[in-house]
Amino acid sequence: MIMATRQFTYLTAIGSLQLIAIIAVVIGHFAVKNPSFMNSHWVSFCFVYSGFFTARHHRFGPGYGVRDHAHFMLDKLARLYPLHLFALALGLFDSWYVWGSNTVNLKVLFSQLTLISPWIPDQNYYFAINPVGWFLCDLFFLYLMAPVVVKALRRCRLVWQVVGITALLLGEWMGGYTPQPGAGSSVIGMYLAYEFPPIRLLDFATGIILYNITQGAWWQHIRHQVTASRATLIEAAGTAMFILLYLTEKTFLFPHCYRAFCVMAPGIVTLLATFLLTSHADGHISRLLSISPLTRLSAIGAEIYLLQFGVFYLLKPSLEAVGLHLYDPLQFVLFFVALLVISWLTHRYYVTPTGKWLQSCHQKLIKR
Predict the structure, then answer these.
(1) Ramachandran region of residue 179, left (φ > 0), alpha (ψ -120 to 50) or beta?
(2) What average pLDDT score do residues 49-61 get?
(3) How far apart are CA 297 and CA 320, in angstroms?
(4) How confident is the model at residue 171 (pLDDT cuts 50, 70, 90)?
C-alpha cells in the first residue's frame, strides 16, 4: 500500500530521487562492468540537488557576512564530517584487514582529513582510503562558494542565468568529453572532468538556477494549473524524457565518454523540474516516490554513498570464501543488504548523536 501525504513536498519526491541516484551509483560500482554508464549522471544529479536545496534553505541576504558563513560551514561540518571520519576509519581498517597493510601514508591521510585531496591531481590521493570520499570534499568546497554563486546569480535576470548556464554547459563539452580508460584518455583528463572541485560548480550552479526559475511568477502560474490528473501525465513524460536523454548519450552519442555534461544536464534538470512542477498535485509517480521505505532510506543516503567501498571490502573475503565475486548478482544483493544495515546503524548510533552534540556546541558558540 502506498503511504503518502496528500500534500506532496519537495523533501519526499526529490529526496527519494536522490536516494535512487545514490543506489544507481552503488550499482554502477559493484553490479555492472561499465560503471560510467551508471555513475556520471547520478553523481551530477546529487550535486545539482545540493545546489537547489542550498539556494532554497539559505538566502544569503545582503547582511550575510564572513561570521555568518563561518557558522554556516560549521553547521555543515557538524552534520557531515563525523561520517567522513567514520568512512576513513573503515577504509583504514579494510587496508589492514583485507590488504594486510600495516602502514599509513600520512600525507594522504592528512589530505583526506583536511578535505583537500580532490585538489591534488593524483589518484593516489583523491581515490585513497575511501574512493568516494572526494565527493564530500567537493561538496564542502561548493558550500564554501555558495554565497558567492547564489548572490552573483541573484543579481542576473533569469533569462541571462539560463543563457549563461547553457553557454557554460556547452563550453564544458570540450573538457567534459573525456574518453574512458583505454580509449586514448589520460588520468589527468578524467580528473579535471570529474573530481576537480571547480568543475562541479557547474552542477551546483545549475541547481541554484533551477531554484531561481521555480520562484518566477510564470513558473508559479503554470504550477497552479497542474491538477492531479495532469500531474501523472507530466511526471511520466518527464521521466521518459530523462530516460531518453540518458540512453541517447550513453548508447549513441558518447558510448565511450566518461562525462559529457552538455547532454547530461538537460536530462537531470528535466527530471528535477518535472517533480518540482507537480509537487503540490500528488501524481501517481510522486506518490510512489513517497512510500515509507523510500522516505526512510533517504535519511541514510549519505551513509549509503560514503560507506559503500568500506563495507564492500569488509565483506569481500567472506563473500569470496563462498565463491561469490564482483558482479555476481547474489554477491551484490548480500552486500547491499549489509550496506543498508551498517548505514542505518551508523546513522542511528553514531552520526546522529555526534552531529547533535557538535551542533549544540556550535549553538553555544553562537550565543557567545
Answers:
(1) beta
(2) 86
(3) 28
(4) low
Contact (Cβ atoms closer than 8 angstroms) between residue 44 and residue 24: no
Calpha distance 208→55 (Å, rounded): 6
Predicted confidence (pLDDT) per residue in 152-168, tens digit: 888 888 778 777 766 66
DSSP secondary structure code for residue 248 in this structure: I
How far from each other are the two terminal CA atoms of the chain, in whole angstroms?
Answer: 50
Mapping DSSP to helix (H, G, I), strand (E, B) and coil, where does residue 179 land?
Answer: strand
Judged by DSSP in three states, 177 sits in strand
pTM of the model: 0.87
What are 123-152's pLDDT values in tens digits? Answer: 888 888 999 999 999 999 999 999 998 888
DSSP assignments along 25-92, one per residue: HHHHHHT-S-HHHHHHHHHHHHHHHHHHHHHHH----TT--HHHHHHHHHHHHHHHHHHHHHHHHHHH
Report the alpha-carbon angle 268-50-30, nearest 5: 65
Distance (Å, whole) CA 313 – CA 351? 21
